[in-house]
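I'm stuck. Please check this protein.
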Amino acid sequence: MSKQMQISVPIRAPSWVSTRRIFQQKLQDLHKCTNLNHIKQVHAQILKQNLHQDPYVAPKLISAFSLSQQMALAIYVFKQIPDPNVHLYNTFIRACVQNSLSLLAFETFFEMQRNGLFADNFTYPFLLKACNGQSWLPLVKMIHNHMEKYGFFQDLFVPNSLIDSYCKCGLLGVKSAMRLFMAMDEKRCGFLEFYD
């Protein structure tokens, strides 16, 4: 028996890359992009390929416009979606807060509720970032009530955001934050005693 001789042939990578693959790569990192010209080019491609209502694409586009402080364009993208899901609402609420459009963030939250969608553990911390000052205390209390009603205190990040917001609402807010912190500490201690 003779040994077969193996010939290795180098594998050549194609010298071209498909435009679809390039577009997919641009979409993947779009939500981190701050170059407005680049974002507008990708937006044009999105419109051309009729992807402007895609629930995967729209949040990335809104985030990109938000980072480049182009909220008029972010609002335009958001309004193009006929039935936004919670993720899209959260993305838009976050964009509003990042661009100091606190009232629009809350209007969007109330619209979300009117449309029968429930907030999740991302919604409330985004809204709470918008609450800064004594005049926001009633809204912080409203959010607190929602969080208790729907059981969001199991997620440690959510009540911590609430405490932080209370502290930004003047002396009354600090007192509420202290009561909340003490109540959380009692629950945590009771929970640990239960498992000892």
The chain has two domains: 30-118, 120-196. Residues 30-118 form one domain. The radius of gyration is 24 Å.
